[in-house]
């Protein structure tokens, strides 16, 4: 009773505070839902939980059902998936670019992979990279249960820094037209530079970076801002940044050891 008597006079203050800062509190909550699963000790738990929920509740062989099941899960659980808002931007980009080769760094549980694969042209293929073996297995099974085949995608289970030098063996003489980075924001700039050193980014290539508003991605933003002749920032929606390599920009020579950040 005494606790109730003390708290009652504070009730109007609490109501006013929550009302005034509701938008900020909601944004903080959504950010925590997004960031918390990225902690190493939460990744395996999150992947297993999402995988089980999607398998039990989706209609196998139907990509749209798989995506809707992801959305259903994310309403009440922390999730690593892009979500419907950023997913719609990804859809628009895939439709516009119609890539022959798309690269995803950070497979997680396969949500973005399914979004990309369902919109690729008949000749399009997806390379997706996940460094955690358990998460990679779950993600691959989700992609397969959505109805896609290994002839349409290739999953590399290794860190992005190890995967990028191996990509040429997959794409041959072709170039990437779409790149989605949704792994470690601190790795965005090193991976972008590695893709350039390997000569894999084609003129006009669209690059998407998830959670580009985080401090860890600041080095990427500074790098791009200092090279307007190379990249154009198109927009940022719900933390998903879209860049485009200028159509007249040429890929770095594959044999060059020069850091592309020093060539401008």
Automatic annotation (TrEMBL):
| Enzyme Commission no | 2.1.1.6
* UniProt similarity note: Belongs to the class I-like SAM-binding methyltransferase superfamily. Cation-dependent O-methyltransferase family.
UniProt GO MF annotations: catechol O-methyltransferase activity
Q: Which PANTHER family match?
A: CATECHOL O-METHYLTRANSFERASE, CATECHOL O-METHYLTRANSFERASE 1-RELATED
What Gene3D superfamilies does the annotation carry? Vaccinia Virus protein VP39
> Record keywords: Transferase included?
yes
> Does this UniProt record's set of keywords contain Transferase?
yes
Segments of this protein annotated with the region Disordered: 245-264
Task: Mark out the compositionally biased spans (Polar residues).
Answer: 252-264
Give the organism the record lists: Anguilla anguilla
**Could you tell me what this protein is called?**
catechol O-methyltransferase
């Amino acid at each position: 009773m005494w606790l109730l008597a003390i708290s009652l006079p504070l009730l109007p203050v609490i109501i006013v505070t929550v009302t005034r800062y509701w938008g900020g509190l909601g944004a903080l909550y959504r950010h925590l839902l997004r960031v918390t699963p990225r902690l190493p000790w939460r990744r395996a738990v999150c992947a297993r939980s999402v995988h089980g929920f999607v398998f039990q509740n989706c209609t196998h062989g139907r990509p749209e059902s798989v995506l809707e099941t992801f959305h259903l899960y994310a309403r009440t659980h922390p999730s690593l998936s892009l979500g419907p808002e950023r997913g719609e931007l990804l859809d628009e980009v895939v439709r516009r670019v119609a890539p022959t080769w798309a690269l995803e760094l950070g497979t997680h549980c396969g949500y973005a992979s399914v979004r990309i694969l369902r919109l690729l042209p008949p000749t399009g293929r997806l390379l997706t990279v996940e460094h955690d073996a358990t998460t990679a297995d779950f993600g691959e099974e989700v992609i397969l249960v959505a109805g896609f085949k290994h002839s349409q995608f290739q999953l590399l289970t290794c860190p992005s820094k190890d995967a990028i030098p191996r990509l040429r063996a997959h794409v041959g003489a072709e170039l990437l037209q779409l790149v989605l980075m949704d792994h470690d924001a601190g790795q965005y700039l090193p991976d972008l530079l590695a893709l350039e050193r390997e000569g894999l980014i084609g003129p006009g290539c669209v690059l998407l970076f998830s959670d580009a508003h985080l401090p860890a991605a600041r080095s990427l933003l500074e790098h791009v801002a200092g090279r307007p002749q190379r990249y154009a920032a198109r927009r940022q929606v719900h933390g998903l940044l879209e860049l485009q390599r200028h159509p007249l920009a040429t890929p770095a020579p594959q044999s060059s050891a020069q850091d592309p950040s020093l060539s401008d």
